[in-house]
């Protein structure tokens, strides 16, 4: 996680009354296709020692299922705040969108 991403998470957690103190940020892979994979990034408090891995990113705890660990190697989570909008971006070198998929014809 970039410093911008960890700062955004910390600010959100501080401002929100709905997130418990034992919550952490969880990232999951939802599926893929010719346009690349989709991710879920959400707050969670259900950590399973046998199935999950936790990472401390400058004070922000990020968790994922262990089965996803190899797929997130080298991944960067950033927070962008620009004139076009704001939000988290995930740059994962392990998954790249295919250009011009012959199966569905997308470009």
Count of discrete structural domains: 1
The count of strands amounts to 6
Gyration radius, in Å? 15 Å
Low-confidence stretches: none
Q: How many strands, what sense, and barrel or not for the largest sheet?
A: 4 strands, mixed
Which fold name fills CATH's third level, the topology?
A: Hypothetical Protein Aq_1857, Chain: A
CATH architecture: Sandwich
The CATH class is Mainly Beta
Query: End-to-end distance, in Å?
Result: 30 Å
CATH level-four homologous superfamily name: HesB-like domain
Helix content: 10-25%
H/E element sequence: HEEEEEE
The structure class reads mainly beta
Q: What's the average pLDDT?
A: 86
Lateral strand order in the biggest sheet: 2-1-4-3
Beta-strand percentage range: 35-45%
- Put simply, the count of helices is 1
- The best one-word shape is globular
Tell me what you see in this structure.
By secondary structure, the chain is mainly beta. It has one domain: HesB-like domain (Hypothetical Protein Aq_1857, Chain: A, Sandwich). The protein has one helix spanning 3-15; strands at 24-31, 38-44, 52-57, 60-65, 76-82, 85-91. The longest helix is centred in the N-terminal third of the chain and has 13 residues, at 3-15. The chain is globular. The chain starts with a helix and ends in a 16-residue tail after the last strand.
Task: Summarize the structure in short.
By secondary structure, the chain is mainly β. It is built from one helix and six strands, in the order H-E-E-E-E-E-E. The protein is 12% helix and 38% strand.
């Amino acid at each position: 996680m970039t410093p911008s991403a960890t700062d955004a998470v910390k600010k959100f957690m501080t401002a929100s009354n709905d997130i418990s103190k034992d919550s952490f940020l969880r990232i999951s892979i939802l599926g893929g296709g010719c346009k690349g994979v989709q991710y879920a990034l959400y707050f969670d408090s259900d950590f399973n020692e046998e199935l999950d891995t936790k990472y401390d990113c400058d004070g922000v705890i990020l968790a994922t299922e262990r089965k996803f660990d190899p797929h997130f190697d080298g991944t960067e989570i950033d927070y962008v705040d620009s004139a076009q909008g704001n939000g988290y971006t995930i740059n994962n070198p392990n998954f790249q969108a295919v250009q011009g998929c012959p199966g569905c014809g997308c470009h």
